[in-house]
Amino acid sequence: MKSLLTGLFLAFLATACSPSDPDAALHERISSTIKASAGDPESYQPARWSKATPWRQQDENGLRAKVLRDSIAKLKPHAELKYRQVQEATRLGMKEQPQWKAEWLQEEEAMIALGKQALALEQQKDTTRLGQQLVHAYREKNAAGALVLDSALFIVLKDNSVRWRPF
To answer: What pTM, to 2 d.p., does this model score?
Structure first.
């Protein structure tokens, strides 16, 4: 009986001494990264943490595909303007029309290439685990000195580097 009580006591002691939050190391790593990049590190106040989930290669590919699609969206208005310029030059018989048309076609081909790259990234189903991701809401002082609430998706890679993307 005495050995049973001793065993239970040791088991209780072992579990009581273990950290209660399995994500505590991630929280500390993210907090130190935010403080290092903040204008006023002392103003940082953690508000909420989501549960950490795996960050996989397909998540990384999806993020890269989104960046490529955003690039296409930024290029599109200029390409549309160039197209209208080519149409007007054709209508007026301007000598610059072939040059402008070549520039427009080059921009269109660049957007198509970006779209193909984004599609290829999205179609890859690689589930290799690269790290962990979580959402964190926090308060810090902005440049004007006001305490503001901000949140972002934080990615902690296997090498302990931290990246984040604001919402």
So the answer is: 0.70
